[in-house]
Amino acid sequence: ALGRFGTTTNHNLQLMANSTGSVTITTAGNVGIGTASPSFNVGSGLEISRAGVATLRVTDSDGTTGSTELLQADTDGYLFTRQSGALVFGTNDTERMRIDSSGRVLINQSANLTGQILQVNGFIDILNVSSSALRWYDGTTFIGGLGLDSWATGGSASNMTMFCEGEFGVVTGGGNTKKLVMDTSGNVGIG
Predict the structure, then answer these.
(1) CA pair distance 81, 182, nearest whole angstrom
(2) For residue 148, how many other CB atoms are within 10 A of its CB?
(3) How far apart are the first and last CA of the chain?
(4) What is the pTM of this model?
(5) Are strands 54-60 and 66-73 parallel, antiparallel or unpaired?
(6) What is the DSSP letter of 150?
(7) Residues of the chain with pLDDT under 70
């Protein structure tokens, strides 16, 4: 047997609290909490509306309590885990990226291998060749960069340039001894 609760005519279903409509299920299948007319640009879904911060919380309460929250505060959207766990993103039933509890971003790997803030298992392609570069800053002070000549010197977009405010050094074979050094005057020392 099937139990039913709802309308039998083409009308929305509304649950009330304190004489105010709190939850609405529309005839289109949209669900609104705090709104009587949930609507979406594409498809249908759940809309949570309120004056102030609107929050959707999903909680696992089986002994290792954890929760993830999706918040809207003014024009800013937030996605949070509230405990010391990772925020994991996936496609095709496979993990693709995670932000661990220390804020490290791991792409195509699930374990912190180097302790660095960004770890990528795979290639990184930089597009828009007319204005692309890797740039280094000390706070807000530009220190150097690696990019195409069109970025660094206004030259050809097919040449690469390393730009440094100080001397440039190359270390090979491990350790921390520079095997090649170019100073700010353009003098090169080898060995």
Answers:
(1) 47
(2) 20
(3) 86
(4) 0.71
(5) antiparallel
(6) H
(7) 63-64, 128-131, 149-157
**What's the pLDDT tens digit per position in 26-72?**
988 889 998 888 888 888 889 988 888 888 888 887 766 788 899 99
As given in the structure block, the two tokens for residue 144 are 């150097």
Report the amino acid identity of residue 137: Y
Phi, psi (rounded to 5 degrees) for 150: -65, -30
Q: b/e map of 153-164 (b: 16 or more CB within 10 Å)?
A: eeeeeeeebebe
Residue carrying structure tokens 């960004």: 118
Contact 109, 95 (CB under 8 A): no
Q: How far apart are CA 24 and CA 22, in angstroms?
A: 7
Is 65 in contact with 59 (CB distance < 8 Å)? Answer: yes
Strand order in the sheet with 76-81: 54-60, 66-73, 76-81
Residue 21 amino acid letter: G
**97, burial (CB in 10 Å: exposed 0-12, middle 13-18, buried 19+):** middle
